[in-house]
Predict the 3D structure of the following.
Amino acid sequence: MTKPKSKKTAPARGAKPAPSLYSAQDVREIFRRFSVQRPEPRGELAHVNPYTLVVAVALSAQATDVGVNKATRELFKIADTPEKMLALGEEKLCDHIRTIGLWRNKARNVIALSRKLVEDFGGEVPRSREELMTLPGVGRKTANVVLQMAFGIPAIAVDTHIFRIANRIGLAPGRTPDEVEEHLMKVIPQEYLIHAHHWLILHGRYCCKARKPECERCVIADLCKAPDKTCDVPAALVELPPQVIG
Ligand code: SF4
């Protein structure tokens, strides 16, 4: 998962984050439309259980989901538990993930977090953010992805797409990912919280793109308050074809 890189769309340092530009009714309508487009949104990181999700997310820092999936396809066939990962060992793990940036550090972290899972958690992935964050290489963002995707606990991991959209359209302005996360958790209606994370990421990845948002293809173009939007007419609200995981 890509980290937020630029803060140029965020409020200036020192300033209090601005309030959301949207009424509660507008926010509900935005997420209603996202839910029609993608009734069952899925993350794009391949995994077979909570443990392999933790590993995949740990490997995905500053890498694409497609690149991580290529590397883990064979790895997870032989190491889908912390015990099997420890048996595989750091050297052989490195052979599998060499195509991913920062692979040496990531391999070290995966072995260390596997060891901690075995020693302190009976080989099971814990279900609380605090416990997840005790694992080597697991920060708040990774913990939120795991809570949401593995255990269905509403959480928003603010990546580069979510950070950009929240600030660009004024949905939940914030200077840091933590501020944006806190703001989004407040403004998104409860019934949409469980999928909000994926809807925003997919909207950012495929429509509200960083350099050139594709406003003509956007289902919220009429509601959007981004100063640089290029279209006021919303795209047809239809269910999109399922994602193909690379
Ligand atoms: S209208 Fe354009 S700027 Fe607004 S959310 Fe849609 S793609 Fe992004």
Summary: DSSP finds eleven helices and no strands in the chain. Residues 50-151 form a domain with the Endonuclease III; domain 1 fold (CATH 1.10.340.30). The first helix runs from residue 24 to 37. The pocket of iron/sulfur cluster is lined by residues 168-169, 207-208, 213-215, 218, 220-221, 224, 226, 229 (CB under 6 Å).
